[in-house]
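Long-time lurker. I teach an intro course on protein structure, and each term I like to show students one example going from raw sequence to a predicted 3D structure in token notation. This year I'd like something fresh instead of my usual example. Would anyone be willing to generate the tokens for the chain below so I can use it in lecture? Attribution to the forum is fine with me.
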Amino acid sequence: MIKEKKEKKSKFSIFLIIVDILAIVCFFVAYGPFSFFRDWFVTTSMTTMTHRYFAYVLYNQEMIDEVLDNNKIIESEDPTDTSKISFNANVDTGTYESIYEEQVLKRDEGNDIYKVVDIKGNSWNGKMVVIYDPSKLKLVFSKKYGGSGEYLSSMAKNNNALVAMNASGVYHPNGQNRVTGTAILNGKVYATGKKINKGGGLIGFTKDNILMLTKKSAKEAITDGMDRAVEFGPFLIVNGKMASFKGNGGWGIANRSAIGQRQDGIVLLMAINGRSSKSVGISMKELAEVFQKYKAYNAANLDGGGSSALYAVVDGKGGLINNPVGYGYSGERYLPNAWMVLPE
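-- Reply from a regular --
Happy to contribute to a lecture. Here you go:
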């Protein structure tokens, strides 16, 4: 009996020692001299719309501000020089300087409109849709805009879209489905919503189908020729120059959606999977570097996380080609609008 009590006491003591060790390790990781976890945790939490409180569980405002100041993106303030985009240069010679050029320029047999490309890095994977004719890329609002919104897959099928990707950020005041920032459609302001601090500015296409990134007002952008656009960010590449990054860029690691255009006019839509064992997600710096590999002359981040969704018709069948995942759930989120390649 005494022996049994000693054994129980011994096991309990071991349990307490293990708990103490784990507590010390966790404290060291969270507050120690190595900042990787702290930087990742704070920047990932603080760049979400609804889960910033995660950062405050471990850190006070002063520590959070210090982390954000040490990890940020410094964007170009210049608007896109649309004169540098030449659609005449969109030619496949059959000779490629890199695998990235081959993936873009070598078209699928029987499809001159778009192609789907698998992309991956050390800890992430995703899909890229190459669109050869940007005039076919439209901004389409959900028929339920202002109400519940729609899943991207539903919007795409309702419009017989060949390709679709999430566009504006989404805001839910009183259960309504609204855009964040400003959305321009057919050369006019179509919708305005809550302003969010995501960097960037207006991301959209001119009437000549050139991707324009600008920090000007909607009125000024429309005067400059903006035809269809959403407001988000940050801008990753402007006029061929990649943004500067301090630390991890201030955005942590997550699933992302992004859009870019090459100087030959080809548009690149990217969706990077995240929050899973197969793909943890991508940093903003890595995302910019991927666009550089594919020679994007202008590129910008769009709403990510649970909003990140990419749809395409492949082998005659349409469906999502990425894996939308939010905090604590998986599957699509109701969206206000989408970029779509529509059939003629």
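Some talking points for your students: The two ends are 85 Å apart (CA to CA). The mean pLDDT is 87.
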